[in-house]
Design brief:
Layout: H1 2-31, H2 41-50, E1 68-72, E2 86-95, E3 99-107, E4 110-117, E5 120-129, H3 138-146, E6 156-161, E7 165-166, E8 177-187, E9 190-203, E10 206-216, E11 230-233, E12 236-247
């Protein structure tokens, strides 16, 4: 009898260990909080340096200076390691059995242009394909197609500059500089004016622009897509991006 109890005890311990290991594996592979860092101009500048000839020399070192049309260039860097062009979201959420978790989704499917005239950026228009957003969880990505962002119904997000931006001091010398821009952000079929905090660096005929803007889900009629595993999602998060432009 004692031997049977010992065997039952050993089986129970083994079951507990297996369950614990399974839970740890689920956390490690699916929902551990290893969100990628926010974009910064120093990292983006490394992509400009690595780009070689297209992004070498001083800013605007061709005959046209920096004036003219600039186009989003997805060939610089790589999306796999987030050294290239991307846009996406960053929100804090509460996950069952885990606690606080940072949800980050990004896509390289970004297009657009900006216009420089004189010493100002006079126009900029960016479009993002939300259907291609990728995070650390495929279940989340699938859910956002029909819930929350509802990207199957509202496939694109856009940003359009509404006020000219004076070129910040130092940018023409190839320095990384900061600036705030005002524009219209359209997400989920709703347009709101936002202020975007930017960091910019020019190098030759290429430019890196990184930044973020606070986004309140309710302002865009977005209902947080909570469920069995995601207990809550913060109402306020970030629209963030890293975009490379080259002269058109």
């Amino acid at each position: 009898m004692a031997g049977a109890r010992r065997r039952l005890g050993m089986i129970a311990v083994a079951v507990v260990i297996v369950v614990a290991l399974a839970g740890f594996a689920g956390w490690w592979f699916l929902i551990r909080d290893d969100a990628p860092p926010e974009a910064d101009i120093a990292t983006a500048g490394e992509t400009l340096d690595d780009a070689g000839g297209e992004a070498s020399g001083g800013a605007g070192d061709d005959d046209g200076g920096v004036e003219g049309e600039w186009t989003v260039d997805t060939s610089l860097g790589s999306f796999d390691d987030f050294t290239g062009t991307y846009a996406g979201y960053r929100f804090e959420e509460e996950v069952a059995g885990v606690g606080a978790h940072t949800a980050v989704g990004r896509t390289p499917e970004v297009s657009g242009t900006m216009t420089v005239a004189g010493d100002q950026v006079t126009a900029a228009a960016i479009e993002v394909d939300l259907r291609t957003l990728e995070s650390d969880n495929g279940t989340r990505d699938g859910a956002l197609r029909s819930r929350g962002l509802e990207s199957d119904r509202f496939p694109t997000a856009t940003f359009s500059l509404t006020e000219p931006l004076a070129l910040p001091a130092g940018v023409l010398e190839g320095e990384g500089v900061s600036a705030d821009v005002t524009g219209d952000l359209t997400v989920h079929g709703v347009t709101r004016e936002v202020t975007v905090a930017l960091e910019v660096e020019l190098s030759g005929t290429a430019a890196a622009v990184v930044g973020q803007a606070p986004v309140v889900l309710g302002d865009f009629d977005i209902v947080p897509p909570t469920g069995f595993s995601v207990l809550s999602i913060d109402e306020e998060g970030l629209f963030e991006f890293q975009i490379f432009f080259t002269r058109a």
